[in-house]
């Protein structure tokens, strides 16, 4: 057994703060006589004789080097002379060319021959797996304590790189990690019957891993913790097997003892008793080993400063609890997982949730998890809103598992916290929430009872009640515009229900039978909206906009499903849609949704299935809808449906085109007559005349958007309406807006015809005349009293100026030169004035709702973006942007992104002109400030600070471009000559030559006051710069001594660059460099050491930390000192190697060894005598081990890596 010399059995409450060292030394007699077991019988598997006559196999080193070449001198493996084959255990595992079973068997054979040399191989294996270049020799193994060995190995680390095998990238090292873990598991599995009980191998290995896990070096801690946790997992498996053997042996013993005296075999009873005794002894030793690993390594490392180490511990304890639930699935171990749910790192929280998922999957374990669920349920529910999406997804899945095990475990409030996540923009979160919603709402019904009820009611589908429930949930969520998100969330879990379109149409079309509730108007609207979303999801087979990064490529199976779903919905709704439109044709909202369905049809079904009569029925219903409604969204839906049905690729095009032409003819005739009547009556027109014109014009405008209606010459009538409105000033604003829009569509369709064909000169002249007249009308409308008319005219002006700009002739279309329009200065000024009057305004109407404010802001942003495009594409002169740039800071929240993008694009097109525009904007700001405050400026005023902010944001070379050579001209234009005075020690010839390019003779000869500073500076340059320091033009000129000092302070790299690059280019570059680039970087931040030696006194730490009263119930400190241990928003709690305990358990009376000993469950004959375990979650009666709060430190003088 592991002796008390090991630190894992020592009291960790050492008052001096230093832990006892782990000893790896053994006596000389043990090294000389490996068969000596100090008089104790060596236990093995009962009934299995030792393989004494078995021929030993060669070790991996002997296989690789060929017999004698693989021998080791002084315990150090010798490398192969050729250097091609692996000779050490580390190399064999790293290469992974041999089966792990054979590698372990070879090591076991070498251990049987010479256990010290074999064990030394294993020690060096762990050292080398940590990335250490050192090797433990036999002399070190015999004469040095483990602390000295670890310190020696620490000094052998390669300090140039922080990588080690477990963290190195690449597939080779990923495979190594797997091989490393597999090697440990196979080693224990192969040694489980004899070697692990020899009181030598496991004692030495556990002692080594315990010492390494307490090292300052991250590589040692990480590697040894992983090895120890995998070792513990293998031992748990051995303990489980021993428990099973004990139960079987006990059952055989009871059966034999219950036989009659004549048939009872006493020899067999004695053998069974002896076997049971040996199994119990083996179990006791396994318990001792697991206690050593758990108390010596786990309780320290589960709170390590490195998140990956903490994650390893939590992952493995989850494996133990699932593998051997009788021993580990209790409050004593669950509390570690519960506490770590508060970890700051998402990686660790994720491991906790996955470990719990493995437990909650088994419903038989729910009784043992009941107390844990009650204590930590709130924390798990709150993690559904975790900032790490992966953690949130796993938390929702865990909540779903809890719901499946016990519906009473979650309250209504808990469920509601998960419900709303189906509308999350992150699809994995939404899908997980959809699975929860499906389990909660749709999994409790009885399918057979639903089918019988549906048959009695004459329904073909049993999903009627479920669809009603879905609609009710959608209505209660009050997010009606997010039906597509709800459908997408439920698509994977409730696809069968969502594709039951027959049941949906039954609920909408048929009258409710006895016992059914009537759908309300809101429920019908919601059901139609959900139905349309399910149709779109099935036909397009991708998430809605806002979920996912884009359309992914469908697999062959998904593509087949998509085609089948599209055919199914087409065949159903070809017949059902006309009936639905007929029933709801008076409801604009329902009709607008229903008219979206044809765009997902497979229109070939009309011809292939001889369903033209259903097409005629659909066209008839659409015509009736057009005649009944004038709402824009309904008319646009009708227009889009006609456009889809008129596609030339389908044979039904002619039939649809005839119906569409007949409809347009009738509407156009009514429109023409209505216009004539309105114009004749003029001011005497009544409401009916206005309504007739407006209703027909709305229909024509909606259709003109998607259809070419130029042959009906709608522009003429619309132009007459607009001219009459301008002249008379009495045209209703809605008619003017619709007339402007319809005329705009007519011009665009005429342009499409010209660009697609070979236009004649007459066609170009005619279109130019139309465009010119329409632009004049729009310009006149800018002064209209009605704001909607002005906004419509402004947007159309910007759009048409973009379309008919100089870019129209690009791409080999020089023949369209006659159609290019360039706005004159008058039009540009009017557009700019409109922007200043309608965009840069303060809207502080308290009576206006937030939705209306957002809509108004969106409209103003569109206006500004339309005008900014004219500036960017050089249609409007760039200086006009000065009036926009000056509002950058004041309206940053509303239009900052648009102004910044405009500045960026204009800078790319013309840097110098952009610089002048920025100067102009700053001049305007200064003049406005001067007018407001007079000659004496208040430097503390908010307005001045805002103006300075504009200067900082725009008046810097950085905003021009980072390339200083390219921006030299723009910088000179932007900052003028004062830019030269900002820098110390200018290179005189370079500055003088550059200054001469910008200074004319008139400047130097006139000698006006304004040019005196310039002339003085030029004269100082002509004299060679000797008097430069005496002039007051540069306030920060440095002395020669400081210059020499600065040169000495430069690094050799900078010196070489200055010599190679030449003095002139370097000085010019520094002259153009910004102020920030002249600042020397601060001192590098010293990395935090992870030494356990530098840890503060626990009592002092406890005194300096104030208690946190906002601790979340269920965390570790909630049961200790009511402190939030791992809250996301708390200060860092991991100080050095381990998280600081802050003296949380200083005054506890119970010791760790008395409370946290792994006690494997007794065999069935002893379970009746087993005592109940204490409740480790009960804060009143909690018995906590001190090693959780006091970290086990290891003094080490080696160099931390």
TrEMBL record:
<keyword id="KW-0131">Cell cycle</keyword>
<keyword id="KW-0158">Chromosome</keyword>
<keyword id="KW-0539">Nucleus</keyword>
<feature type="coiled-coil region">
    <location>
        <begin position="262"/>
        <end position="292"/>
    </location>
</feature>
<dbReference type="InterPro" id="IPR013721">
    <property type="entry name" value="STAG"/>
</dbReference>
<dbReference type="InterPro" id="IPR020839">
    <property type="entry name" value="SCD"/>
</dbReference>
<feature type="compositionally biased region" description="Low complexity">
    <location>
        <begin position="1032"/>
        <end position="1044"/>
    </location>
</feature>
<dbReference type="GO" id="GO:0051301">
    <property type="term" value="P:cell division"/>
</dbReference>
<keyword id="KW-0159">Chromosome partition</keyword>
<dbReference type="InterPro" id="IPR016024">
    <property type="entry name" value="ARM-type_fold"/>
</dbReference>
<feature type="region of interest" description="Disordered">
    <location>
        <begin position="1023"/>
        <end position="1068"/>
    </location>
</feature>
<keyword id="KW-0175">Coiled coil</keyword>
<feature type="region of interest" description="Disordered">
    <location>
        <begin position="1"/>
        <end position="86"/>
    </location>
</feature>
<dbReference type="GO" id="GO:0003682">
    <property type="term" value="F:chromatin binding"/>
</dbReference>
<feature type="compositionally biased region" description="Polar residues">
    <location>
        <begin position="1076"/>
        <end position="1092"/>
    </location>
</feature>
<comment type="similarity">
    <text>Belongs to the SCC3 family.</text>
</comment>
<dbReference type="InterPro" id="IPR039662">
    <property type="entry name" value="Cohesin_Scc3/SA"/>
</dbReference>
<comment type="subunit">
    <text>Part of the cohesin complex which is composed of a heterodimer between a SMC1 protein (SMC1A or SMC1B) and SMC3, which are attached via their hinge domain, and RAD21 which link them at their heads, and one STAG protein.</text>
</comment>
<feature type="domain" description="SCD">
    <location>
        <begin position="298"/>
        <end position="383"/>
    </location>
</feature>
<dbReference type="GO" id="GO:0007062">
    <property type="term" value="P:sister chromatid cohesion"/>
</dbReference>
<dbReference type="Pfam" id="PF24571">
    <property type="entry name" value="HEAT_SCC3-SA"/>
</dbReference>
<feature type="compositionally biased region" description="Basic and acidic residues">
    <location>
        <begin position="1105"/>
        <end position="1118"/>
    </location>
</feature>
<keyword id="KW-0132">Cell division</keyword>
<feature type="region of interest" description="Disordered">
    <location>
        <begin position="1099"/>
        <end position="1118"/>
    </location>
</feature>
<dbReference type="InterPro" id="IPR056396">
    <property type="entry name" value="HEAT_SCC3-SA"/>
</dbReference>
<dbReference type="Pfam" id="PF21581">
    <property type="entry name" value="SCD"/>
</dbReference>
<protein>
    <recommendedName>
        <fullName>Cohesin subunit SA</fullName>
    </recommendedName>
</protein>
<feature type="compositionally biased region" description="Basic residues">
    <location>
        <begin position="1045"/>
        <end position="1057"/>
    </location>
</feature>
<feature type="region of interest" description="Disordered">
    <location>
        <begin position="1073"/>
        <end position="1092"/>
    </location>
</feature>
<dbReference type="GO" id="GO:0005634">
    <property type="term" value="C:nucleus"/>
</dbReference>
<dbReference type="GO" id="GO:0000775">
    <property type="term" value="C:chromosome, centromeric region"/>
</dbReference>
<comment type="function">
    <text>Component of cohesin complex, a complex required for the cohesion of sister chromatids after DNA replication. The cohesin complex apparently forms a large proteinaceous ring within which sister chromatids can be trapped. At anaphase, the complex is cleaved and dissociates from chromatin, allowing sister chromatids to segregate.</text>
</comment>
<dbReference type="Pfam" id="PF08514">
    <property type="entry name" value="STAG"/>
</dbReference>
<dbReference type="GO" id="GO:0008278">
    <property type="term" value="C:cohesin complex"/>
</dbReference>
<dbReference type="GO" id="GO:0007059">
    <property type="term" value="P:chromosome segregation"/>
</dbReference>
<dbReference type="GO" id="GO:0000785">
    <property type="term" value="C:chromatin"/>
</dbReference>
